[in-house]
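Action item from last week, closing it out:
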Amino acid sequence: MLKKIDFGFALLTFILGIYVVVEGFSYGFTAADGQPGSGLFPIIVGFALIFFSAINLLRSRIDYLSIKEEFSLLVTKRTLVILLGNGLIISLMSFFGIMLSTIFSILFTGLMIAWGAIDKRFVIQITVIAVVSTLVLHALFIKVLRIQPLIGIFGF
């Protein structure tokens, strides 16, 4: 029964993602002056919904994880810790700036997800992912979108 519910929710979020992308394009990806349009962020969120819903649809069909693993108390606690930790990081973003905050968020989330199975190699991998993805996103904001991201007390 829960597998059917999981599939149903994944299908609904997939359809919602398509709707958000279509509506986002109707608002415009960019404005007349070349700046990001009001539809840019809904389009990004819509594509993320489509991508992750498609993964969830496939996963629900091949039963990659059991329902017990998905709804365990440990996973619920970790999710709550991740939400609270990222909320704290976001609240300190004006102090640290967007670059450091993004790096901290990726590191914190990755370490919380892998808690109990963390080794030196994982820490190196998640650190590289955090730094490289943050630099790529920062360059995207500055060079492509021409948006100056929030700068913290450290100057970046």
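Closing note: The longest helix spans residues 2-27.
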